[in-house]
């Protein structure tokens, strides 16, 4: 199972794809520099894979690897039920769609127009549907075979967004957030509000929207629970405008969704097109996730019927650098804070002698015990 943002290990003896196979020759404009970020609000470790995935330009690479068929892509899965077996099915669908996107378009599918990107997105969703159905059929025990899936890909100046089941897709341009379905240049698939679930039948027909993207645009993918809890373009505008990085924006949306008791495990992927750090969000892969996890925990502890004691922004700032992060996090667990030394006289400093074990690092919660001989 690949982690979000990981590259596939392409066999070294495999032939190098031709430039014609990497992108449709009729796609307008130069290649876009797409940067991505994603988050999930699942706190506990699980034996299955991730419920989201993204790929784009990363630090140290001028563009995605040579075999990559798109300038950037993102996937978000939603479990049909808020339990581990259903989430495992959604994670399998995400991985199957990722592999289908990595294979890209066959030479016969690469046309002289920009519709090839939408065809490959639809193919990825159908491949994921077949994969989860085959997975359920091969299991000795009954396991879920349905879920929801959002898939987006950007090739040059064209983006395609596909959906099977629940979820939301938004375009943020010049600070204005709109649903992709409202600004798309083209649409195919079901016209109703919610297409069939992935894996619900042999031939799933996803809803696919195609639209042009510009420098500074953001494409946002929300899982079903986050879409139901937030799903308001005006609110999304406010959340993103208060953030400085794509990662922070993903965290802010999910903490707000957790405060509103969004059902199940939820994920967010945010893709930025030719972002200018001087005037827009930028990517910070090194962002510490610990404050985010503490903020999620704080959001969980606020009762569903009681008053909301803090907003998502308050919780992230409280747990982040410069706030009372460590004390607040320990207070959430009911334990004492160790951020400040206890009152009273402190023992004088001691000079280490040769042969003494090294002192523990500041903030370490692991104590070194002597090993018996």
User: What is the molecular shape?
Assistant: globular
Give the SSE string.
Answer: HEEEHHEEEEHEEEHHHEHHH
* Count of alpha and pi helical runs: 10
- Number of beta-strand segments: 11
Strand order of the largest sheet: 2-3-4-5-9-8
Average residue-wise pLDDT: 76
Radius of gyration: 23 Å
Beta-strand share of residues:
15-25%
Helix content: 25-40%
Largest sheet: 6 strands, antiparallel
Based on helices, strands and strand pairing, what is the structural class? Answer: alpha+beta
Characterize the structure shown:
This protein has a 6-stranded antiparallel sheet with strand order 2-3-4-5-9-8. Helix 6 packs across helix 7 (246-259). It has 10 helices and 11 strands. The model is unreliable at 5-28, 59-67, 106-113, 324-343 and 361-371 (pLDDT under 50). A hairpin with a 2-residue loop joins strand 4 (147-155) and strand 5 (158-164). 29% of the residues lie in helices and 18% in strands. The chain has helices at 19-22, 84-103, 116-138, 180-183, 224-229, 233-241, 246-259, 290-301, 312-319, 325-332; strands at 34-40, 52-55, 72-79, 147-155, 158-164, 168-173, 176-179, 186-188, 207-212, 218-222, 267-273. The chain is an alpha+beta fold. The two termini are 41 Å apart.
